[in-house]
Amino acid sequence: MVTFEQTRKIALALQNVEESTSYGTPAFKTGGKLLARLKEDGDSLVVGTTFEERDEMLVADPETYYITDHYLKYPWVLVRLSRVSPDALRDLLSRALRLASTAPRSSKRRRSAR
Length: 114
Known about the structure:
Layout: H1 4-12, E1 18-22, E2 25-30, E3 33-38, E4 44-48, H2 51-60, E5 65-66, E6 76-80, H3 86-102, H4 107-113
Antiparallel strand pairs: 1-2, 2-3, 3-4, 4-6, 5-6
């Protein structure tokens, strides 16, 4: 079992990750881009991923990784903190950081920067 405090330590140990909020819950971002946030249930973390990786996680360990209808069309996976190992969570957050770091900036952000 991983607590949110352990999650915070893992996330903030990654380069250029800062604590923030998203939808009123604690979150972790890099350069303003969301990597992960605590879901309202307090036991799940919403983590950025790819659709392919998400599909693999859902098949490999459906007790730990899951999805709700809200996230079906978005590259996010829900992770039960009560079931994930610290090493697996570190890997997930590291991948989310790489994805966020290589993702192009949104056009909304570019417009507001002018």
